Amino acid sequence: MIAKLTGLVDQVGEDWLVLDVGGVGYLLFCGSRTLGRLPPVGQSARLFVETHVREDHIHLFGFMDEEERAWFRLLQTVQGVGAKVALAILSTLATKELSQAIANNDKAMLSRPAGVGPKLAARLAIELKDKAIAVLPPGSFLPSGPAAGGLEDAISALVNLGYRRNEAQMAVVKAAATLGDDAKVPALIRAGLQELGKEAVR
């Protein structure tokens, strides 16, 4: 399986590029955000790759960073999301916007990409919330702005109490969704501990 390729940008199309690696041209399907970050034709680029092997084809999908590739994989765990829709989502929403839309249950934002209707947007918000916190890099699922600092402080406090970071992050994000953006760190810690207690008895 191919996980990463480094070579010269040879050709670029609407949703694909050809990367020349030692004289071999690899066709990579990419979202518009990845294509927009490519260097000019003839210059070197490194892309992270997801390989899809089917009975009738082998497709390579290219990404500029590992977080975007992780989202590509994660999105396809939701029923109704294939590679094409996953790329459409990542073309429309930056990974940070996608994280925040799911954290805030923002179905309107999740409905913006082509191929995502209201029902699928609701499914994305529900099914991906816990999964995203568990598999994405630390901090990628936190909102931006002043609120992020308070959430990070609460997460650090729970980690210092002996909880795993993923568990602490999940609990604090859930607590923040309940308490609102103005919640203070002590309240987030208390509510986070309550969330962790609920998980422990399940």
Question: Can you walk me through this structure?
Answer:
- The protein has helices at residues 32-36, 66-75, 83-92, 95-103, 107-110, 118-135, 146-160, 165-179, 185-201, and strands spanning 4-12, 16-21, 24-29, 44-53, 58-63.
- With 202 residues, it is an alpha+beta fold.
- It has 3 domains: 4-63, OB fold (Dihydrolipoamide Acetyltransferase, E2P); 66-135, DNA polymerase, domain 1; 146-201, Helicase, Ruva Protein, domain 3.
- It has a 5-stranded mixed β-barrel.
- A hairpin with a 3-residue loop joins strand 1 (4-12) and strand 2.
- Helix 2 (66-75) crosses helix 3 (83-92).
- The longest helix has 18 residues, at 118-135.
- The radius of gyration is 19 Å and the shape is elongated.
- The mean pLDDT is 87.
Topology:
Elements: E1 4-12, E2 16-21, E3 24-29, H1 32-36, E4 44-53, E5 58-63, H2 66-75, H3 83-92, H4 95-103, H5 107-110, H6 118-135, H7 146-160, H8 165-179, H9 185-201
Parallel strand pairs: 3-5
Antiparallel strand pairs: 1-2, 1-4, 2-3, 4-5
Helical content class: 40-55%
Oligomer: single chain
DSSP summary: helix tally: 9
Alpha carbon gyration radius: 19 Å
Low-confidence stretches: none
Would you list the SSEs in sequence order as H and E? EEEHEEHHHHHHHH
Q: How far apart, in Å, are the first and last alpha carbons?
A: 38 Å
User: What's the average pLDDT?
Assistant: 87
Short description:
The chain has helices spanning 32-36, 66-75, 83-92, 95-103, 107-110, 118-135, 146-160, 165-179, 185-201, and strands spanning 4-12, 16-21, 24-29, 44-53, 58-63.
